[in-house]
Specification:
single chain, 277 residues, mainly alpha, 2 domains, 82% helix
Length: 277
Amino acid sequence: MKDKRLIFLLGAVVAISLLLSIFSYFFLIEYKNIFFTILGFSVAAIVLPFGIIKYYQASRIRKLEDNFPQFMSDIVEAVRSGMTLPQAIDSISKNDYGELTPYVRKLNAQLEWDIPFSKAFLSFTRSTKSKLIARIGSTIIESHEYGGNLTDVFESISKTTLEIERLREERKLYLNSQIVSGYVIFFVFLAVIIGLQKFLVPSLTQMSMKDIGTEQKIQDPEKIKMEYKAMFRNLIIIQGLFAGLSIGKLSEGQIIGGVKHSFFMIVFGVVIFLLLA
């Protein structure tokens, strides 16, 4: 239900943005600054929902992977006590694994309906849409089908998942300084742009132009200020977009993880620029 509401809301945003773009094209095309401003925000509003959906999906998968090591540890303990895999799943299905809980209970229900373990567990791993869980799941299925010491196999898999999670956290802590640096660079860039708009552009509009040995003032200085303001605003949007995506790639290992950083930088940068410049 939550996913349907989110898709409906994002669809409404895209539809409104398209209508606004069409309206501005037919009625505001003569006002270049207004038209391109509306067009820029409309394009951002159309592209942003797809980024939000991708980020939401990546965040959900990350939460599943965060809870998966605990799930594996509980399976190891249950199998070590002498239970079979279906019995172990049934025993731990009542535990709370956060985002992973519905998937575990669905897996247990399928096993209770006498669906073969390999088929049920394969469905479990595929439904999570996590590459990490899918790789570990294939190892579990092969171990179950071909036999061997399941306790040792599961214990080894559990240690692997814990080690992967530990390395992720270490990587995130190590790159925190890079994230801070990315934000500092953006704020410095924003300060420079505001300084240029407030101090350099007004002086440029007061400069004199030499034309055939005579001096004449620049015509329509307000128009020149507006053109520079639009250009600087677009630079802030571009800088915020790519700086945020770079931070996401560094901190989470995937570009889509930078959507929230890009959104914050663009909104914060444009608002501060419009208020101060």
